[in-house]
From TrEMBL, chains A, B:
Similarity remark: Belongs to the Casparian strip membrane proteins (CASP) family.
UniProt domain Casparian strip membrane protein: residue ranges: 46-179
Annotated Pfam families: CASP_dom
Topology relative to the membrane: Multi-pass membrane protein
Species annotation: Saponaria officinalis (Common soapwort)
Protein name per Swiss-Prot or TrEMBL: CASP-like protein
Keyword Transmembrane helix: yes
UniProt subcellular location: Cell membrane
Keyword line: Cell membrane, Membrane, Transmembrane, Transmembrane helix
Region (Disordered): 1-28
A GO cellular component annotation in the UniProt record: plasma membrane
Amino acid sequence: MRSPQSLRNGVGGETPTPSRSPRPTIPSPHDIRFQSTLSVHKLRRFNSLVLLFRVATFVFSLSSFVFMLTNSRSQPRWFDFDASRFVLAANGIVAVYSLVEMVASVWEITTGATLFPEVYQVWFDFGHDQVFAYLLLSADSAGSTLLKTLRDSDTCSNTSAFCVQSDISIALGFAGFLFLSLASLMSGFRVACFLIKGSRFHL
Amino acid sequence: MRSPQSLRNGVGGETPTPSRSPRPTIPSPHDIRFQSTLSVHKLRRFNSLVLLFRVATFVFSLSSFVFMLTNSRSQPRWFDFDASRFVLAANGIVAVYSLVEMVASVWEITTGATLFPEVYQVWFDFGHDQVFAYLLLSADSAGSTLLKTLRDSDTCSNTSAFCVQSDISIALGFAGFLFLSLASLMSGFRVACFLIKGSRFHL
């Protein structure tokens, strides 16, 4: 597996270069300018899509976090059950992480370079996306099983505010998971590009 | 995004070709032979690793399925709860899928070609790996939350056989999930190779 370090950036603001061939031929200057414009256009679209997924993940997981946190007016409160604590914690972690990734994404769109050195950035993004997507799904599954069990007993009929608000929180958490898993696909593609071509650009 | 269809196979038994450059230069026959031997060696290692993950997933999910299915001697049986039915179904589905993928993997190692046409095979593998990994994790999280709730009530103290056997089944399911997510990383890498280079080989 090749891993040339030639196209690594992180501090400087190099413009993205088109794909390199193993034995370089010499293209005309017109070719280079055309290729480069096309690449910049496609990369901007790719990065904008990633930013969109980040924003959606942030919005949904923050809403889920807030809904669960304010779920303490009626008798069974969110901190009475392990599963609802898990939902709260997972959504909080994902909201903070998405905020950081939004900053990194905006930085990359505006300056054209990654916030950290490229090799760390692509692995950091992909590793955290994968783990946090699994974390969020696991928390939401646990939460919905808890609610199912509470509904079978008579907890939900007595004080239905808790159950309704938990339902909303978990549904928002599932929406956050959906967008996080999409972002995870994109960052996984960037890691694969980095492994194959030595750069996060696929063009 | 380039997607040349030149290296697609599925019926024939072509040997893997080394990476192509946009404007082909003419290497010596010795170069080609050396490159080709190296590629075949590395690809065999990659495919063997995938097969290993498939076998491990199959063994663990089948064991989990059997443990849950035979969990009907004492009073609460596996079909009394939604979550344990979910665990049984998810592990059964993953066991069958892993068996199919094992056959496909052995076929690819022995003949050098994919079972289906390459474009379908890489997307089929990756799509199912992702979805089934999420399915299995969700089922196991639901199952462990159910057991936690049962332990808080007095169901587990009265008839502990059900709870112990469910614990084992869920633990085996988590092990299956671990190997399935590793297989999903490998098949995701093959999809990225296919998108970037037009072939599932990264060499």
